Amino acid sequence: MLTGWETLTEIGREQGYLHALRVVLSRLFLGVRLRLKRLPNTIESNLQIWSSHDWSEGGEEWSNTPEWKASVVEHVLKPNVPTGSRVLEIGPGAGRWTECLLPRAEHLVVVDVTPVCIEMCKARFKDFGNIDYFINDGRDLSFIPAHSIDRIWSWDVFVHIQSTDIENYVRQFATILAPGGRGVIHHSKSGVSQTGWRSDMTAQKMVDFCQRYGLDVLQQFDSWDNGRVRIWPALPADAGPDIVTIFAKPVQVGRLRRSQIAPAEPQSSGLNADGSTEPSSRGLRPSSAEGLAAVCGPR
Ligand SMILES: C[S@@+](CC[C@H](N)C(=O)[O-])C[C@H]1O[C@@H](n2cnc3c(N)ncnc32)[C@H](O)[C@@H]1O
C-alpha cells in the first residue's frame, strides 16, 4: 500500500504535481468520511457528520423528487399535524420539513444537536414569529414544559440515532405531549441495514418503548397513498430500511383510556413507486409565507 507521500510523488512524476495533490487530498477526504460513516450512531458522531455536511441543497438532496416530498406533506404530515397545533420538530437540519410545519403550527419548537442547523433555520425563518429554536445535547428535552406539545415531527433524524438514545427521547415525549397529542417519527426498521448509515433501531423497539412509557402506537408504515409512494422509492418494496411510527398519548376518560384523535389516513405498503433519485436544486433562501404556500400547498 502506498503512503500519501509515495502516491503524491509517483502520480506527480507521471501526471503533474498539482493533479497528484488533488488526488491525494480527495482520497484523504473520502477516507475520513467513510471512517465517520462506519462509526456507531452516537450523538457525538451525529454532531460531527451534520456539522460538516454540505447543506447547500437545504436537505433536498434527500427528497427523491419534489413530487415525493409533496406526497409526504399531503399524506403524512398534513393528516397528522392539524393547523393550529403546538408542534415540536426534532432535527430540522436546514428546515426541509420546518417550512411545511411552520404555516400550520400555532407555535413551533425546533430542537437540533447541531448548532449550524439551528443557525440555518434562524436565518431562513427569520420573518416568522411563531418559532423557538433550541440547541440541545442530543438527549435532553427538559426545557419543554410538560403537556405543552400537540404534535411531534421528526424525519430523517431517528434513522441515525441509536436505540438507547431514542428510548430516552420517547420517555420525554410522554411528558411533554398533551393528552391526545401525537408523534410522527421516521426511524430505522430492522436494526441491521447500513444503507444510509442507519442505526440499531427497529420497528418492534419503537412499539416497546411507546408501551413502556404509556404511549399508544396508532400506525407503522413505509408507504402511503394506497401503497403508491414509499419512503425509499428506488429500493424493492421489502428492502426499505425505514418505517414511520405514529403514536398518541391517551386521554384518560374516567377509568378508560383512549387515543382521542381520529386515525390518520389509512396506509398500506408494497406497491411499486416511480420516483427518481434526482435531487432538487432548490437553494436556501429566506422563506416567506407565500413561498411556503408554493412548496407545501394550502394549509
Ligand atoms: C439527515 S439530517 C435531516 C434534517 C431534516 N430533518 C431533513 O429531513 O432534511 C439529520 C438531522 O438530525 C439532527 N440530529 C441528529 N441526531 C440528533 C439528536 N440526537 N438530537 C437532535 N437532533 C439530532 C442533525 O443535527 C441533523 O440536523
Structure in words:
The protein folds into 2 domains: 35 residues; 237 residues, Rossmann fold, CATH 3.40.50. The protein is built from 9 helices and 11 strands. It has 299 residues and is an alpha/beta fold. The protein has a 7-stranded mixed β-sheet, sandwiched between helices. A two-stranded antiparallel ribbon has the order 7-8. The relative contact order is 0.14. The longest helix is centred in the first third of the chain and has 21 residues. Helix 1 packs antiparallel against helix 2 and helix 7 packs parallel to helix 8. The site of S-adenosylmethionine has 23 residues, from helix 3, strand 2 and strand 4.
